[in-house]
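U., I forgot to send this yesterday:
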Amino acid sequence: MWIVGGILAVAGLAGMVLPFLPGAPLLFLGLVCAAWAEGFTHVGVWTLLLLGCMAALTYVVEFVSSIMGAKKYGGSPRAMFGAALGGIVGLFFGIPGILLGPFAGAVAGELSLRRGLDHSGRAGFGTVVGMAVGVAGKLAIGIAMVGLFLLVRAGAG
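Result:
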């Protein structure tokens, strides 16, 4: 179980940066496997619940950061809605959709308000900047998850 947990945890951390791997679920499963390897004697239910909440938080961070990036670069509420909608629709088109969906949605949102291509492009660029901030936030949460796991494990032993 330790080997499986380690492989899943490493894949999960990589998935925090790579869009084709479900990072948070893989990391969480890896930590559950590692806790299971010790019969849950060191890392128990409450720690695993907290780790699960942290894993879910990565999705909130990613979603909100791309929307806020559009806003920071002058996007209207329609651009923010377009970025969110583009992100959801982009999930169905694989990696290109995941990367381009929020950008295209923000640009389309601004263009629908008859704003110029320059202004619309800035809102789309803001979405990309927000996505990069979101990736950094997800990675930070992933590292914190591993740190929490190790801290609880060390303190219990």
